[in-house]
Amino acid sequence: MIQIPRSLCTTRDSLEFSERSLQEIYAPNARCFGCGPTNPHGLHIRSRVVDDLVVADWKPEPYHEAFEGYVNGGIIGVLFDCHSNWAATYSLMKRRGLSTPPGTVTAEYCVIHHSPTPSNSTLHLVSKVVELTEKKAVVETTLEVEGKVTASFKGTFVAVKEGHPAYGRWR
């Protein structure tokens, strides 16, 4: 499982939290439910690069719960999918030497829930690209709450071509 020193993590109370996220830099007008900065009903995931990892902290609200005190599994899936997609598209952008990320979509993913995820604390996501080609990135991500990994993820993301609805989505 991916581990990151807590000293590198950001929270809403830390100075680093005010830094612009990948979403705010490359897709400030995006409306995606999980990561779009402009979606008034979205989750507003804010992914940041830390060395070779992409990290994000997110605080659930009671309406994100499956039952009292625990985050809904579907919400966890959205967090993993959107955050990991940003790890993939950022890595593809860097590999290709581009100034903007290519449009990417999820080809497949798997979520493993190790234990129920409490909703009373900040959720910490850590992504690492484990395979990278010109057109594809495989990403592994963990979800941690108060030092305990409650879920893990592995997904494959592919760059799309002109004519696909996601082509140019970050512009």
Topology (elements, then pairings):
Elements: H1 22-26, E1 48-50, E2 53-58, E3 65-67, E4 70-71, H2 73-96, E5 104-113, E6 123-132, E7 136-145, E8 148-159
Antiparallel strand pairs: 1-2, 2-6, 3-4, 5-8, 6-7, 7-8
Entry summary:
The protein is built from 2 helices and 8 strands; from the N terminus they run αββββαββββ. By secondary structure, it is of the alpha+beta class.
Give the key terms.
single chain, 171 residues, alpha+beta, Thiol Ester Dehydrase, Chain A, six-stranded antiparallel beta sheet, two-stranded antiparallel ribbon, 8 strands, 33% strand, globular, disordered N terminus
Give your account of this protein's structure:
The protein is an alpha+beta fold. It has a single domain (6-159), classed as Hotdog Thioesterase (Thiol Ester Dehydrase, Chain A, Roll), CATH 3.10.129. The protein is 17% helix and 33% strand. The protein is built from two helices and eight strands. The chain has helices spanning 22-26, 73-96; strands at residues 48-50, 53-58, 65-67, 70-71, 104-113, 123-132, 136-145, 148-159. The strands form two sheets. A six-stranded antiparallel beta sheet has the order 1-2-6-7-8-5, with helices on one face. The protein has a two-stranded antiparallel ribbon with strand order 3-4. The longest helix has 24 residues, at 73-96.
